[in-house]
Amino acid sequence: MKQRTTVFSIDPNYEDLITNVNQTNFQVTSQPDKQFIIENKYTVEPTKKYPNIQQFRIQTKFEDPLDSIFNFGYSRGLNVYAVPVPHYKEVDFWNEVNELTNELLNITITPASFVRNLNSYYYHDIQPIDLINDKLTKGVNYDYAYNSDKVIIRELLQNVDNVNYNLKTGIKKEIGLFWIDEKFSNKQDKSLRGFRVLLDEENSDEKNVHKTMFDMISKHAHLEKSTSKIIPQGLHPIVNTKIPDSTVEYFQSQGCKLYYYINVNKSLIFDPFQNVPSGSQLVINNGNKNLELPEYKIPEWGNEVLFEFDDIISEVNLTLHSRYQLPENNREQATTIFNSPPDVFIGCNTDKVDVLNASPFDTKRDIQIGRYFAN
Fold this sequence. Notes:
With 375 residues, this protein is mainly beta. The protein contains 3 helices and 24 strands.
């Protein structure tokens, strides 16, 4: 097994942070109010092969990530993706998906609950679920990715005071401590400075500390966090999203467009004929498109919707409609519907594809809708 741990520090005075470093141990302690943000990445061989699954991915978000170099910007809750191999056997494919969701999440997701998503199937639930894995911390954001060759698991730890890593038989550990070099960074692209420590029994080099530099070119220019609220309107609520003023600065970059992505609970209806927000084009609407069915007749979890704006705007108003619920004789209160907030971002053209491909960080998949864009 390989473990790559990246410790991100907002304090560039790294010499004051190191408690111990040698061939078998690495310890660092943060300064007060300058805690670390850490990504643990584990790479292992699959314990079992699934011949009808090309890729299987779980992205779970318990809390909004702090500002850092790590990409965990997917929708809050549970997000499951399954990509079949070409010419797959449908029954066997869904049996394999069911086996994985039971093993990893201890839940069963019926095939009808997934929505078709280009060449894959997608499931979303606003309630996050821990991955069943004794190496991971409970209640933190994580990303699990399977293919026939390897399994990669990433987890995000925030507000960490100190870390202590030891050499362990059978595990090749690469621990990095990095900070942002402000002289060569801007709001979109980051230049990282730091060093890596190798804790590996097979490493014969006495020098296991290596100075390292990375330039991170962001594929998507994330904005300051937008704020959303529900404007009550009877059975036709409006999702109102305020766009930060800083959007203007990013939008001036050549080839940039504004995007708005939202997962819509199956108790709500998005009407593509009447309710596309002003100034936008509907790019994606995956899920059940029947506007008349009641909630209890919809097998899918809901819809995923993506809008594209050519011009800068200060807010987005998305009108949704309520589906009829299953009547209950003893129901005394109205049904409460929970929905994930929308993600607002800017997508810009770039000619630095080689830099993106060479980056050790997951810049090409920083948000789940990245699959809809080239490169």
